Amino acid sequence: MKLEIKQRIEQIHQSEIPEAYKKTKAGILPGDWDVYMLGDCLSRVERPVEVKPNELYTQIGIRSHGKGLFYKEPVTGATLGNKSVFWIEPDCFIVNIVFAWEQAIGKTTQSEVGMIGSHRFPMYRPVNDRVDVDYLISYFLTKRGTDILEAASPGGAGRNKTLGQERFLKSKIILPPIEEQRKIAAILTTQDKVIELKEKRLAEKQRQKKYLMQQLLNGKKRLPGFSGQWEIKGFNQVFTFGATNTFSRECMCEDSTGIKNIHYGDILVRYGEVLKLSEQEIPSLLSDIGAKITTFVDDGDVVIADTAEDLTAGKVVEVQETHGKKVAAGLHTMLCKPIKGCFAPGWLGYYMNSETYHKQLVPYIAGVKVMSISKGNIVKTHILVPSIEEQTAIVKVFSTADREIELLRLDIEQEIQKKKALMQLLLTGIVRVKI
Predict the structure, then answer these.
(1) Mean pLDDT (whole number) for 293-304
(2) DSSP state of 379
(3) Is the pLDDT score of 336 beyond 60?
(4) Which of 12, 28, 177, 316 has the fewest beta carbons under 10 Å from its own?
């Protein structure tokens, strides 16, 4: 960051007015920035649809957190019934009034012409050349903008927090000159494209890994230098069960000391196939509760989430690199301890999360709102066991893929933080752009 910008930030923090800036009720702003009512910058646009029963209509939706628009499957006019809908007009600011407080906002484009939107999705077109729609969307993702959306959406949670459109249009917004708005929006859009490109690369890496898991974990496609049949062993031949606990989240904390606890929810959402405690912190049990644990997870043990909301029940994590840390298997889990010398580090984590193994579980996963699998059924499954050397080679392939995926994730997070920094500097006027 340039010294000039650092000095300006320090001046503003100390309530000093930098050169070419001014003090307003909204704070210290560049001299040519002004405060406007939204109603002086935007005009409501609506063109009702005369719904015909036999026509097909494509409705749009609006994602929260400024993630833009999406399209629903086409439906007939008869399906729409008496629903009040409007033709989408291009180049408008659009908002979902039910979830405006959650930044359910977006911009319409030529791509949506011919589509329709709910009466809950009012559209506004800029007037008087005062506001750029792309700039406005970025503004509403800042704290100042979010405060406007929340203040105009009184009430309780969810559908009771509906945007009051009159109150919304009476809200005040800080705006630079229109050309500066467009330049700022272009800079932020470019950063969005960088993030989007890297997210596509991440998705492709994840697809490649999934494909490799489908190919390499069933014994049909072999790495160079390996041949021969894989052994098939029954679950009970290679595993014994260890004791688990039933402590809920309320019994856990983020303390780095104490007994670590593997909760089923973290297996389903946070952890990959292999959990290395040297690389990832996991929650601990509260000290008085942890004292009750007598069975611990060892390197190479498998912890299975036996409960989920869907067929992800049965997801597995193999624990490695405990380095003397005491680790327990928690609520809705099975602790499975493999026989020594049968598996290479990482093999069980990758194999038991593969489609090859999971499809054995599916017939035994039962439930309506909550799905689960029992010990009595999981022991009916079998494990494919290549030689230790082949296991090690396959694990190396997936470990390399995981490292590449993790590096991309970190890179994307850095780009997201860069965008946040740009927004903080550009949308407050701390950094000016050259027009």
Answers:
(1) 95
(2) T
(3) yes
(4) 177
